[in-house]
Design a protein that fits this description.
This protein folds into 2 domains: about 45 residues, no CATH class; about 90 residues, Aspartate Aminotransferase, domain 1. The chain contains 6 helices and 3 strands, in the order ααααβαββα. The N and C termini lie far apart (about 45 Å). The chain is mainly alpha-helical and about 160 residues long.
Length: about 160
């Protein structure tokens, strides 16, 4: 629930066969995993509210435009990028530290891919939710410079 409704609603909905649901419920009762009835009712009210559903749908469409726009802007600069759903775009890079540092120095915040991969090649994760569509071109330019820096002594 935290994705569409915010981090204060860190809970999940579970559906399954009776034995699996009973096991999960039993484990939740043992620890701090319980969810208050107030919170459960709040989520149910949000699910039932057409205005909230419309707001979540519009947010998803907005994220999709920005995500696809960034992937397209990077492709126009000869860079591969991946992101079919959600708020993040994955950009393969030769060196995560170099890319993250160069982007930070250019005023952009990205996450090193090492936090999100096990065996995949290096990359950076770019979250599109705080971006405006006008940011996509300048960000793609900065990523291109970070991934393919100019030789020492030369500027672009």
């Amino acid at each position: 629930m935290s994705k569409p409704y915010g981090p204060d609603l860190r809970l999940a909905v579970l559906a399954g066969d009776e034995a699996t649901v009973a096991r999960v419920a039993g484990r939740a009762r043992v620890g701090a995993g319980w969810v208050s009835t107030v919170l459960q009712r709040l989520v149910l009210a949000l699910w039932r509210d057409p205005a909230t559903a419309d707001l979540v749908r519009r947010a998803g469409e907005s994220y999709e435009r920005r995500r696809d726009g960034l992937v397209d802007a990077l492709a126009a600069r000869g860079l591969a990028a991946h992101g079919r759903t959600g708020i993040n775009v994955w950009v393969p890079v030769p060196d995560e530290t170099v890319a993250v540092t160069a982007l930070r120095d250019a005023g952009w915040s990205v996450a090193p891919g090492a936090l999100n991969r096990i065996a995949a090649a290096p990359g950076v994760r770019i979250t599109v939710s705080p971006l405006d569509e006008a940011d996509l071109g300048p960000l793609a330019d900065a990523v291109a410079r970070a991934v393919r820096p100019s030789p020492a002594g030369f500027t672009t």
